[in-house]
Amino acid sequence: MNPGTQSCIDCYKSISSPSKGIYKDKGSKFLAFAFPVETEEQAKAAVASLKKEYFDARHHCWAYRLGATGEKWRANDDGEPSSTAGKPIYGQILSNELSDIVIVVVRYFGGILLGTSGLIVAYKAAAADAIANAQIVEKIATARYRVEFDYLQMNAVMKCLKDFQLTPQNTVYDNGCSLEVNVRLTQEASFLESMNKICICQKA
Q1: Is it the case that residue 45 has pLDDT exceeding 90?
Q2: Average of pLDDT values for 138-157?
Q3: How open is the CA angle 40-144-177, to the nearest 5 degrees?
C-alpha cells in the first residue's frame, strides 16, 4: 500500500521537526513553539524546557495531541482566563489534523489587556503561524510488539519479519531470544496470526 494514497487508512499527519511562530498585539508578544513528540513525557519536557528558557514570561500556555487517532490530548491556559489559550492552540492542532505534536505559546505582557476575544485570537494566530512554518509529514500508525523465541526458531522468526518488511529493535540473541517491532495497524492481525504459529508475541 502506498502511504501517499487516500487508501492509507492507518496514516496520520504530524510535523517533522520543531518550528516557531509569532503574533503581536498592543505590546503583547506571543511566541509559539511546535515540537514533534510521541509521549506525554516528551510533551511535558518541552513545556518545562521553555518555561526554564523563557522564565521571565508571564504565561506559558500549551496543548498537545498524541497517537494516530489523537486519543491522548491536553490543553492548559497557564493562568490566562479559562479557555482563552490552551483550547485555541488545541483547536489549531485539530483543524490542521495533526497529532504527535505539542505547541507552547509563551506570552510577554505588553501592559494593555486584550480581553478574552483578543486572547483567543492571539493564541490561535501564534499557534497557526508555528504550524504554517512547520514541515508536515505523514506517519504510519503502528502497534509495538515483543517477540520471544528459542534460538532454533530464529530463521522462522526472521522470515516472518522479512515478509512483513519489519525491522527488529532491542534484539537479544541468546538461548532465550527476544526482539521488538512496530507493526502497522493494517498488518496487525495477519502479523499476529503468522508469528503466533512460531512463538510468543505480545504487546510491548
Answers
A1: yes
A2: 94
A3: 130
Question: What is the DSSP pairing of strand 59-66 with strand 101-108?
Answer: antiparallel
pLDDT at 4 over 80: no
pLDDT at residue number 47: 98
pLDDT at 123: 98
Residue whose C-alpha cell is 522564565: 55
Q: Is it true that 11-139 and 141-203 share their CATH fold?
A: no
Q: Where are the domains of the chain?
A: 11-139, 141-203
Helices assigned H by DSSP within the chain: 40-53, 86-95, 115-132, 154-163, 188-195
Can you give the pLDDT at residue 10?
85
The span from the CA of 162 to the CA of 150, in Å, is 18
- Residues of 155-189 as b/e, b for ≥16 C-beta within 10 angstroms? eebeebbeeeebeeeeeeeeeebbbebebbebbee
- The CATH-assigned architecture of domain 141-203 is 2-Layer Sandwich (3.30)
CATH 3.30.230.30 applies to domain 11-139: yes
Burial 87-121 (b: 16+ CB within 10 A, else e): bbbbbbbeebebbbbbbbbbbeeeeeebeeeebbb
